[in-house]
Amino acid sequence: MEYGLVALWLATYLSIGALSLPLAGAAFSTVRGRGVAFAIPIGLVTIAAVGYIVGHLAFGLPALLAGLAVLAAASVRFGDFERRLWRHAVEISVVFAVAFLFAVSLRAVSPAIAPLPIAAGEKFLDYGLLRSLLRSPALPPEDMWFAGEAVQYYYGGQMLTALLATLTDTAPQFAYNLALAGFYATLVTAAYGLAGAIAADHGAPRRFAAVVAAFFVGIAGNLDTAVRVAAWALPSEALATLPGVGPEHELGSWTPAAFSYWDSSRIVEGTINEFPLFAWLNGDLHAHMMTTPFTLLVAGLCYAYWRTPRDESTRRRGLVLATAPVAGVLAITNTWDFPVAGGLVFLTVAFAPADPATLLPGAIRRRVPAPTDSRLGAELHRDGLALLAAVAVLAVGALLVAPFWLSSASTRSLGLFPPRSDLWPLVVVHGGFLSLFVPYVGGRLAGSGDGDRRKRSIAVAATVVGGGAVAWIVGFAALALFGPLLMAAWLALRRRDDVGFETLLVIAGLGLALVVELAYVVEPQQQGTGLERLNTVFKVYSQVWILWAPAAGVVAARLLDPAGALEAVDTPRWRWAGTVLVGVAIVATGLYAGFAVPAHLGNEPVGADGPTLDGTAYVDATYPEEAAAIAWLDDREGQPTVVTAAPGGYRWEPTEGEGAAAPASLTGVPTVLGWMHEEQYRGNDPYEARLGDVTAIYEGDPDRQSELLDRYGVEYVYVGPAERARYDLTIESHPRLEPAFEGDQTVVYAVRRE
């Protein structure tokens, strides 16, 4: 185990946080704790944003130094951090350290950066991007799977990891797993801090809310495992014949011995339903994981806006503007999160106590028509101005990372009205959160008060429930499940003073969960397969979970607090019921971790005698016939072009002709064509053209081979077990090739220039 590296990276993250404390204190001056929990994400966002801009001139050390210089200058500009908050800073540091070490322990027993059959997921994509960035003199990096062209995938998280690897002088096979642990800890800490601040402002127990939020974002899973355990423990015929928890599994035959960490990620048919703990157990350094703490940073800045007094319009403008660079980093890290930043700004400006019009300069404000006396007119007035603020944030954020939009392309388009989700899977995926949100929002909307208010509440409740019933009748299960709560939460925010930002987060998540039932990003390769919205639900549900976790912490704390029990039934009995409700929700969502974490920690690292963070240790043990050749290729400087078997996919089984583009993926040396995902990035025609060209290079005639080698600037031809199994090779006898590396089954040929 590389304990020295663990200590180094932990110290690095905490140092970045300490350097960022003055900046956090200035941004979160109106929030309990002064944003200490957001110091690390603020520091990382600053390094990433500046590093991205400077990186187009010179990536690596220059980009890193520029990012650190801007961060240091900003901290000096905003002065000293209040000494009285150092105790809170120590608390947050402990939370970060515990989360970091927990994630390190998970990665140390499953460190392999590998495709199937060693590991599942897209680790080769993530690691290949990291290696490409470390080889690149400037941004954007060359695509390791489409030589000669820039990457057309969001790579901000891998870029930040590369900068941290440069800062700590860490080899990429270790940096991969250490960065994973860092992103996890940053997410847990941000959720802990945000929930604690909101709860404290409500007068609810801060630490309890913070711990519950950290639990939901770092440990909890969906209700799949709870349902399976219930079916197994209570073997009634009715329970055992419930609709399937997922398309591949039946409740009636499940036992604890059959538990798999994978099953809970495939609940809604034709989609992926990951949650944070699953993602970190699976171990991809993937976009939807790395962006999570920055999404919560946007939420934190929005909460700071929420807490800023109405008369401090300059500060509120500054906070809105501060979300723009974070939105830019979201765009290059996981573009799916970019519009979410705008959505959070919209909801915040629309619902915050301050009049949105005060964000406008005085001359413009005087030209804006005043809202009408009607509630509808006032609502449209606030929502319209809030929409302008959101558009402005997204526009500025997009402008800050303009090169990303100019260099990226996609064959995807927007589709409408995808296949709808069934009710039972939706309950399994989201039920843990809904079990807390429904009584909380419903209780407050009903509330106590005079007779007229009670009558209005009953009328509202009837309308809400009626709308849900209509949605159920017409077969729109998601609208029936989410719609009533969304309406109730919206009305509660408008009508009640005792609900706040936690309810806004509930609304944001509900809106996202409904959007994927109405629209989706079309994946051309998945049309007609029943998987049309697989990626859309995958990415959006991850955002829903991240937004709901801190809200759940606040709600749980308020349900347990005597002053925050259900107002509609304000009796000790029902307060006790709230305690039971919270306990059941925690136990039910915690069962996944109870099974998955011990099973995971019982694994033996592939290719290592004990725990390690070396993500490529398995290569020597599992693929000895290629390990030396890949290591030799890795020692080449710069970005020479190689050709390997194509296309690669999710399996590395050389004897079956499945090479998974391993030489390129593990080194960052670009290959003519790598994984099959390039068809999504580039389109069918360019992809198929290169696929045919690779085949011609390996088994064509010499003249055609020479033409193609020159066209793509190929410097090395890789011939390993996968190439020998897939092609009728003629390339090895080409007169322009000479062996540069020779192993038992693998030869790397150098191409002589004519």
Written description of the protein model:
- The structure is a single chain.
- The protein is mainly alpha-helical.
- It has a domain at 623-751: Rossmann fold (3-Layer(aba) Sandwich).
- Helix content is 61%, strand content 4%.
- The chain has 31 helices and 6 strands.
- It has helices at residues 3-27, 39-55, 61-77, 86-108, 123-135, 156-168, 172-202, 206-218, 224-233, 237-240, 276-282, 287-290, 292-307, 313-333, 338-351, 362-365, 375-400, 402-407, 423-446, 451-473, 477-495, 501-515, 534-560, 572-601, 617-622, 624-634, 662-665, 678-682, 684-699, 702-711, 721-726, and strands at 413-416, 519-522, 641-643, 714-719, 737-742, 747-751.
- A 4-stranded mixed beta sheet has the order 3-4-6-5. The chain has a two-stranded antiparallel ribbon with strand order 1-2.
- Helix 5 packs across helix 6 (156-168), helix 6 crosses helix 7 (172-202) and helix 13 (292-307) crosses helix 23.
- The protein is globular, with a radius of gyration of 27 Å.
- The two termini are 49 Å apart.
- Mean pLDDT is 89; it is low at 244-249.
Major sheet details: 4 strands, mixed
- Count the strands? 6
CATH topology of the domain at 623-751: Rossmann fold
Order of the strands making up the biggest sheet: 3-4-6-5
